[in-house]
């Protein structure tokens, strides 16, 4: 008999499908297998389906008796996950499933992200599609790919596949919150050409490690340190103390994840090695004092290492450090209309040196289109100052607040009936696919919700079992009233 980690936990069928999903590699850009699984599910249950060329899947189901002629409802979530792991994790995200763990209250994956964002949406939809006893209107269940790297799947989806204009998205991470608006954004890149030539001296590795990291939209307001920018501050301060040549600098793996780890290698004159090590220690101590109190595991370390004989020129070193230290990062403005809402921000999520190019990749977000464009223009100008080329992809529109929303009003009423209290109705700074769908489907009425999750996009990600059960019950109650 197959050993199931989540067996016996409730809600039984959603968690069954969640565990099935976790067995399948489904990091962003690696979605063919999970997409085919969904197609296989549709075939097995005799449901009409469409799989497009980028691996998006739509599964259709008629309304149950008494609901056949009700307005069609779109249930939507994304099938890809942020694939992050600890340094010692043996998991290969291209070929391996996740190693689930539970204590009966929370679910997590050993050494990796869990992918509750957004595997739980897929699991909910499959559990509804398989069960003819659940009352619901006609359904269009939309499973998109590559949401985590720019919402590419939603951008590519043909809107002609969808007739519904009532849209329930399950890509939120806090029970009791109904999201009704989100920021638009883009993935921006700066690419600085550098000159590499022979270098003599002593090498030094510098490490910024142990930061909290997190989601660059949902957690940007928490003020968590960015390891790439922290390294930039250190390198800039060191350059004012003594000359050195940069060999490389790299940190972060996802543009929309606040980076936790960055490393650099420099070369100094042989007779300045001890001076350099001392200066790095002094600068590091100063920087550590500036970090938020929550960054309890943060550390900056250095070690002497072998000099391989090649490094950036002094001019290229100065350009790289100058650009890295000058580019904006973090919150740029707060909303004047919604208290506590970040209006515009960016995150330097990926920093890498490849050959003769240093690249910086940013997740840019704003609920005000003009501010997003102005921030992108700042990045372009910073790049031009140092000779870096600008690139952009994955741009997506903001999901604007709809004053008249029958779906929102219904979901508020059902929540009050089930929970005995009012839900929080809010806008968020993180991007949601609702923005792209609202642009494709005129008149779309959207709400996003979901169960409690902790530390998404990190190896500390946790999914609450009790919240998953309550949210499941809530979703079924909403569908029964539509």
Question: How would you explain this protein's 3D organization?
Answer:
The chain has 482 residues and is of the alpha+beta class. It has helices spanning 12-22, 32-44, 116-130, 152-156, 227-241, 273-290, 314-326, 369-386, 406-419, 434-440, 465-481, and strands spanning 48-51, 57-61, 73-78, 100-102, 106-109, 139-144, 166-169, 177-182, 184-193, 196-198, 202-209, 214-215, 245-251, 257-258, 262-268, 299-305, 310-312, 330-334, 342-354, 357-366, 389-396, 424-428, 445-448, 453-454, 462-464. It has two domains: 12-183 and 398-481, Zn peptidases (Aminopeptidase, 3-Layer(aba) Sandwich); 186-396, Alpha-Beta Plaits. Strands 1-2-6-3-7-23 form a six-stranded mixed β-sheet. Strands 18-19-20-9-21 form a five-stranded antiparallel β-sheet. The protein is built from eleven helices and 25 strands. The longest helix is centred in the middle third of the chain and has 18 residues, at 273-290. It is elongated. It is 30% helix and 28% strand.
């Amino acid at each position: 008999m197959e050993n199931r980690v989540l067996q016996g936990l409730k809600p039984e069928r959603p968690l069954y499908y969640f565990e099935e999903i976790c067995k399948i590699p489904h990091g962003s850009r690696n979605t063919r297998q999970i997409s085919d699984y969904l197609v296989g599910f549709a075939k097995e249950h005799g449901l009409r389906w469409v799989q497009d060329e980028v691996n998006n899947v739509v599964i259709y189901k008629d309304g149950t008796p008494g609901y056949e002629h009700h307005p069609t409802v779109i249930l939507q979530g994304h099938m890809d996950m942020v694939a992050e792991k600890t340094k010692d994790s043996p998991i290969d995200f291209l070929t391996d499933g996740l190693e689930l763990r539970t204590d009966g209250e929370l679910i997590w994956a050993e050494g990796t992200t869990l992918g509750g964002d957004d595997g739980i949406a897929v699991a909910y939809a499959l559990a509804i599609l398989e069960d003819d006893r659940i009352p619901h209107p006609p359904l269009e269940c939309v499973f998109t790919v590559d949401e985590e790297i720019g919402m590419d799947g939603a951008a590519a989806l043909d809107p002609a596949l969808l007739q519904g204009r009532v849209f329930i998205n399950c890509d939120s991470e806090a029970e009791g919150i109904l999201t009704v608006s989100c920021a638009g954004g883009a993935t921006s890149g700066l690419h600085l050409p550098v000159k590499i030539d022979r270098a003599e001296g002593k090498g030094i590795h510098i490490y910024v490690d142990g930061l909290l990291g997190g989601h660059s939209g949902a957690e940007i307001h928490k003020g968590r340190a960015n390891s790439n920018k922290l390294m930039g501050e250190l390198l800039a301060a060191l350059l004012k103390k003594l000359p050195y040549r940069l060999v490389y600098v790299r940190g972060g793996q996802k543009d929309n994840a606040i980076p936790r780890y960055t490393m650099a290698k420099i070369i100094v004159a042989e007779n300045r090695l001890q001076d350099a090590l001392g200066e790095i220690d002094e600068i590091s101590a100063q920087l550590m004092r500036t970090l938020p109190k929550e960054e309890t595991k943060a550390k900056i370390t250095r070690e002497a290492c072998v000099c391989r004989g090649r490094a950036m020129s002094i001019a290229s070193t100065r350009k790289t450090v100058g650009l890295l230290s000058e580019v904006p990062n973090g919150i740029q403005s707060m909303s004047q209309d919604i208290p506590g809402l970040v209006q515009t921000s960016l995150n330097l999520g990926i920093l890498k040196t490849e050959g003769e190019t240093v690249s910086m990749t940013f997740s840019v977000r704003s609920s005000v289109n003009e501010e997003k464009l102005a921030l992108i223009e700042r990045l372009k100008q910073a790049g031009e100052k140092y000779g870096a080329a600008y690139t952009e992809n994955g741009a997506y529109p903001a999901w604007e607040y709809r004053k008249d929303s029958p779906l929102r009003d219904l979901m508020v009423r059902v929540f009050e009936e089930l929970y005995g209290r009012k839900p929080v109705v809010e806008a968020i700074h993180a991007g949601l696919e609702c923005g792209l769908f609202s642009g494709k489907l005129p008149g779309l009425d959207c709400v996003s919700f979901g169960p409690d999750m902790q530390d998404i996009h990190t190896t500390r990600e946790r999914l609450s079992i009790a919240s998953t059960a309550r949210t499941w019950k809530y979703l079924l109650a909403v569908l029964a009233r539509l």
